[in-house]
């Protein structure tokens, strides 16, 4: 159902609105022989124009890092992130019980992945701690799509 502009606006119509589900999956920048079992993989999104709002609930039931390395990633975003200078960043709510410092999340430019980092000190980021076998991640992010 399209929404029309108010009485003081020009005749604009909200013609690019979409809701749906997506399947988040945890991996690493270099997966190697990583083995992750998910007990829950749920995600929903709302897209209005080029702004995408997502929520996810990702729970692990098994984790073996093996030769995996690099950034911890939640993959499978429903839309590719924008190429614009600030289009790949979003706001965060992300939770997991064993973090040693504040988790930070960003969606890389021209990607369908969320890269998880932690804030070490003022403007210094590090790779997020490895999860344990029963880790839970849930949160939301808003980003600009390509």
Topology:
Layout: E1 17-22, E2 25-30, E3 35-48, E4 51-64, E5 69-75, E6 93-95, E7 103-107, E8 113-121, E9 124-127, E10 136-144
Structure description:
The chain has 146 residues and is an all-beta fold. It is 0% helix and 53% strand. The protein has strands at 17-22, 25-30, 35-48, 51-64, 69-75, 93-95, 103-107, 113-121, 124-127, 136-144. The chain has a 5-stranded antiparallel beta sheet with strand order 1-3-4-10-6, with no helix packed on it. Strands 2, 5, 7, 8 and 9 form a 5-stranded antiparallel beta sheet that branches. The protein has no helices and 10 strands. The model has no long low-confidence stretch (mean pLDDT 77).
Which structural traits does this protein have?
146 residues; mainly beta; 5-stranded antiparallel β-sheet; 0% helix
Question: Gap between N and C termini, in Å?
Answer: 24 Å
Number of helices: 0
Strand order within the widest beta sheet: 1-3-4-10-6
Q: Report the count of strand segments.
A: 10
Low-confidence stretches: none
How many whole angstroms does the radius of gyration measure? 17 Å
- Share in β-strands: over 45%
User: Roughly how much helix do the residues carry, as a percent range?
Assistant: under 10%
Q: How can the largest sheet be summarized?
A: 5 strands, antiparallel
Short overview:
With 146 residues, the protein is an all-beta fold. It has strands at 17-22, 25-30, 35-48, 51-64, 69-75, 93-95, 103-107, 113-121, 124-127, 136-144.
